[in-house]
Amino acid sequence: MEFKLFTGKTSINPPKSFLKINWFKPPRGWYKLNVDANFHSYNKNCGLGGVFVNATGSWIVGFVKLSHANCSLVAELKALQEGLRTAKEWNLLPLEIETDYLEVIQAIQVGNKLFNKIVNDCRSLMHQQKVTLRHTFRQGNRIAHQLAKGVLERDNQAIGVAGGSKAEKPSKKVFVVPPFDVIDFVESDRLESTSHKKLLCNEACKLLASLGNQYILQDACYVDYVLDVS
Question: Among 53, 75, 126, 191, fewest CB within 10 Å belongs to which?
Answer without folding.
Answer: 191
